[in-house]
Design a protein that fits this description.
The protein is α/β, with parallel strands linked by helices. The protein has seven helices and 13 strands. β6, α2 and β7 form a beta-alpha-beta unit.
Length: 271
């Protein structure tokens, strides 16, 4: 069994700031991390390796610094890492990103047939949840999204059974492999890398594929291949709240005041 897991380097959104004049992200001094959903995807791939002896290939598209998220995947057990890095890939939206990743996975498949492609449900910087399904479309593969449990794999019949987490119920699905799966964060608890794992990751070879290798039409990738364009980014305005306090004899007056304001703001309806 061969699993390809896609990982992305994203800014730590808890520390992202926006320039009020240019309305762009201030990247200086902002730490970058592995997209949390992708961390769960990597963990699930390694669990397949532990249980079924799967070979795991980690793939990431990004600048040279994205090598760090691939080495992290190696530190917990990924067998091979590929970085898709080229200025021509820069500025890509979800359509152009899935085009590059889809072709790269096809190249990987030529060397070693791929049974499962794993992605996190979404990234914390874009929150679109579109790249996984986009990859499935380019691979002409079955897609299973919103998966929160891998139930079983039948290697003899080449099928996989999973549980999908929908809004008001769960859905059990069995599908033929190859298949693309996007995972929820509650699917597992990612392990910590061991010291030997970290040492091996530091020495591991990360293959770098650029567009000279992939040979994609420049008009279908990067900024030129991205029909979605961000015109403006801004932080939402925060309204100052009001604290109403009261103790003892003042408690009822505080409750009445709070209720009055909720009615005034049309939060509470009075018939």
């Amino acid at each position: 069994m061969h699993i390809v897991v896609c990982v992305k380097m994203v800014p730590d959104t808890t520390q992202v700031k926006i320039d009020p004049e240019t309305n762009t992200l201030i990247r200086e001094g902002v730490p970058f991390i592995t997209n949390p959903y992708d961390t769960n995807a990597v963990e699930e791939a390694i669990r397949f390796k532990d249980k079924y002896g799967a070979y795991v290939t980690a793939v990431s598209m990004g600048p040279p610094a994205a090598e760090s998220v691939l080495r992290k995947a190696t530190s917990i057990g990924a067998d091979e890492c590929i970085l898709l890095s080229d200025r021509a890939f820069g500025g890509a939206d979800t359509l152009a990103t899935s085009t590059v990743l889809g072709l790269a996975i096809k190249k990987v498949h030529e060397k070693r047939p791929v049974d499962i492609v794993l992605c996190g449900k979404q990234t914390i910087d874009g929150d679109t949840a579109q790249v996984g399904p986009g990859i499935a479309r380019r691979l002409d593969s079955t897609q299973l999204t919103l998966v929160d449990e891998m139930i079983s794999v039948d290697e003899e019949n080449n099928t996989i059974r999973v549980r999908r987490k929908l809004e008001s119920y769960y859905e059990i699905i069995e599908a033929k492999m190859p298949v693309m799966i996007t995972v929820e964060r509650e699917i597992n608890t990612p392990r910590y890398p061991t010291v030997p794992g970290r040492l091996d990751a530091a020495e591991a070879k990360v293959q770098v594929w650029d567009n000279n290798f992939l040979k994609l039409d420049p008009t279908t990738i990067g900024l030129m291949g991205s029909p979605t364009q961000v015109r403006r980014i801004f932080a939402p305005e925060r309204e100052q709240g009001e604290v109403i306090s009261g103790e003892g004899d003042q408690m009822q007056a505080a409750v009445d005041s709070a209720f009055s304001k909720l009615t005034e703001w049309d939060i509470v309806k009075v018939n």
